[in-house]
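Appendix C: a fully annotated inverse folding record. The material below is reproduced so that readers can follow the format used throughout the book. The structure is listed first as tokens, followed by the designed sequence.
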């Protein structure tokens, strides 16, 4: 009898072990954490990683082939490789969203990157220095790189691309109508944007991506409505960091880091001509 009980106990134990093992293997596996990139705590999983050993010519070709931007300008050089890397990784970090495809569609794909000197205060602009191109002054980017404030460069890239996305605003599309109402109720967002609704739109988007930018308005926890707008109407639910006001693991830049300044917006007449309106 004791032998039978012992045998039965062994059988039950083995059966339970089998069930537990089966259950364990059937549980869904947690997704592999996505490594943060410069300035972005929670980027899209990389599908086009930056090729560290590529030549400058190969990097230029890669930006065009992988992201669809034609390139021009004199600053695509080995000296500016860190800035080129910031641009590449910021684009790659947004690739699980429709952001790039949406903004390129607004101008029938007629948008490129111009790496060139920009006179005055601006570090970047859309269609001012060169028509149909987002221009970045990589020589000015170096100031942020030296200060350890790469997050602001990420914000600047997303900011200037937001102006391209917003280039159809004269036809008053739904996303723009909603944003104008939001701006009227919420008001000022950033020091740079001030009372300008178009610059506020670009900064709402830019800081949403570049969460590690120094003095990011979202860090205050005061701009939940703008955050939810960018999340819903621009990035289809994708978040690049924690909720507004929550602490993030970001490298702290120098206290005297200089603010990268976007350029003024292009004229309405040119935008209307570009979008065929």
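Designed amino acids, in order:
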């Amino acid at each position: 009898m004791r032998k039978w009980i012992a045998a039965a106990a062994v059988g039950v134990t083995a059966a339970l072990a089998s069930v537990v093992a089966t259950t364990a293997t059937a549980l869904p596996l947690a997704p592999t954490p996505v490594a943060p990139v410069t300035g972005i705590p929670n980027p899209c999983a990389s599908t086009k990683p930056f090729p560290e050993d590529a030549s400058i010519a190969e990097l230029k070709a890669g930006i065009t082939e992988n992201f669809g931007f034609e390139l021009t300008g004199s600053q695509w050089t080995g000296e500016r490789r860190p800035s080129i890397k910031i641009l590449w990784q910021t684009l790659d970090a947004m690739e699980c969203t429709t952001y790039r495809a949406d903004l390129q569609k607004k101008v029938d794909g007629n948008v490129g990157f111009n790496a060139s000197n920009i006179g005055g205060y601006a570090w970047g602009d859309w269609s001012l220095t060169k028509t149909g191109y987002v221009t970045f002054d990589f020589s000015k980017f170096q100031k942020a790189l030296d200060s350890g404030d790469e997050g602001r460069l990420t914000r600047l890239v997303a900011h200037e691309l937001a102006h391209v996305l917003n280039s159809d605003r004269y036809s008053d599309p739904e996303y723009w109508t909603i944003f104008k109402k939001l701006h009227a109720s919420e008001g000022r967002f950033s020091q740079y944007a001030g009372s300008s609704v178009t610059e506020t739109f670009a900064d709402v988007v830019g800081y949403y991506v570049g969460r590690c930018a120094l003095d990011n308005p979202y860090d205050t926890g005061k701009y939940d409505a703008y955050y939810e707008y960018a999340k819903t109407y621009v990035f289809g639910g994708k978040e690049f960091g924690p909720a507004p006001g929550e602490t993030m693991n970001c490298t702290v830049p120098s206290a005297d880091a200089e603010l990268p300044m976007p350029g003024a917006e292009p004229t309405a007449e040119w935008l209307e001509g570009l979008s065929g309106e």
